[in-house]
Amino acid sequence: MKKIWLYTEKLDKFGDVLRYNSFIANINRSNMKKIFTVLLLVVLTNCAFAQYNQEPYYGFRLGLTAHPTIGWVKPETGKSNGVNLGFSYGLLADFNFAENYSFSTGLTITTINGKSTELDPSPYDAQYGAAGVTAFDLKYMLQYVEIPLTLKLKTEKIGNVRWYGQFGLSNDFNIGARQDVELAGKKIVQDISIKKDINFYRAGLIIGAGLEYDVAKSTSVTTGLTFNNGFTDISDDKSRSVRNHYIGINFGVFF
C-alpha cells in the first residue's frame, strides 16, 4: 500500500509539472501574439505617416512658366547695341532622381530680341550701302521652340523653401525671325521676315539659380534667374557670324 501511495504521489507531482508547463506555454503564446500585434500596428502607423508626410520631391513633376527675357546679340564684325525685352512661356518638367537632384527640362516658346550695329551686312549692303564700309543698325526679333536639358541641384528644405542651382544645355529651334534696319538714323526696313537667313538650330549654355516655395503639399511656385549663353552662329550668312544671348527672369508653378 505504501508503494502504491508513493507511486500515486509521484503521478500527482508529474501532473502538476505538466499543468505548469502548459500554463507557461499559454502565457508565452499570448504574449507573443500581443507583441506581434503591437509591432504590426507600429509598422502600419509608420508607413501611413510616411506616406502622408512624404515630400513632393521624388518622381516626376510638371509645371507651367511665363516670364520675360532680356536679350542681346553679339556680331563678329560690329558691336552689340543694347538689350531688348522678349518673352517665354510653356511647360516645365523635373525628373527627381534623388532628394536633392533633378533632371530638369521643358518645352517653351521663347523670344530672343536684340540690337546690333554691323558692317556691310547682306543683303542690305548691296541695296543701301555706300562705297567703303557702311554700318547698319539691326534689330533681331527671333522666336524659338526651346528644349533645355539641365541638372538642378537643390538644398535641404529650409521652412517651405528650397534653393537650387542649375546647369545644362539649351536646344532651340527657330520658328520665326523678323528684323528692323536703320541706316544713319533712318529706318529703311521694318518688320521684314528673315527666317531664310537664320539658322534653324541654336545651342546655348544655361546657368541659373533660384528657389522653390511650397504653397501646398504637391504645389510649389518657383522663381529665379537664368543666363542663356548662345554659342552657335544664328546667321546663315557665311560671311559673318552673330550670336544671341538672354537672361530669363523666371516664374513658374509646379503641380
Notes on the protein architecture:
By secondary structure, the chain is an alpha+beta fold. The chain has two domains: 1-54; 56-254, Beta Barrel (Porin). Helices cover 22% and strands 57% of the residues. It has an eight-stranded antiparallel beta barrel with strand order 1-2-3-4-5-7-8-9. A hairpin with a 2-residue loop joins strand 2 and strand 3. It starts with a helix and ends with a strand.
Which fold name corresponds to the CATH topology of the largest domain?
Answer: Porin
Q: Helical element count?
A: 2
> Tell me about the biggest sheet?
8 strands, antiparallel, barrel
Q: What string, H for helix and E for strand, traces the elements in order?
A: HEEEHEEEEEE
Number of strands: 9
Number of domains: 2
- Top CATH class of the largest domain: Mainly Beta
Helical coverage, percent range = 10-25%
Please summarize what this structure is:
By secondary structure, this protein is α+β, with helices and mostly antiparallel strands. It folds into 2 domains: 1-54; 56-254, Porin (Beta Barrel).
Please give the structural blueprint.
Elements: H1 2-52, E1 59-75, E2 78-98, E3 101-119, H2 124-128, E4 135-154, E5 161-183, E6 186-193, E7 201-214, E8 220-230, E9 242-254
Antiparallel strand pairs: 1-2, 1-9, 2-3, 3-4, 4-5, 5-6, 5-7, 7-8, 8-9
Describe this protein with a few key phrases:
single chain, 255 residues, alpha+beta, Porin, 2 domains, eight-stranded antiparallel beta barrel
